Amino acid sequence: MNIIVAADANWAIGNKGELLVSIPADHRMFRQETIEKVIVYGRKTLETFPMKHVLDGRENIILSTRADYAVSGAKIAHSIDELMKMLEKYDSDEVYVIGGAKVYSEMLPYVDVCHVTKIDQEFEADAFFPNLDRDPEWEITARSEEMSYFDTTYHFVKYERKIKTDASV
Ligand SMILES: NC(=O)c1ccc[n+]([C@@H]2O[C@H](COP(=O)([O-])OP(=O)(O)OC[C@H]3O[C@@H](n4cnc5c(N)ncnc54)[C@H](OP(=O)(O)O)[C@@H]3O)[C@@H](O)[C@H]2O)c1
Question: At the topology level of CATH, where does 2-161 sit?
Answer without folding.
Answer: Dihydrofolate Reductase, subunit A (3.40.430)
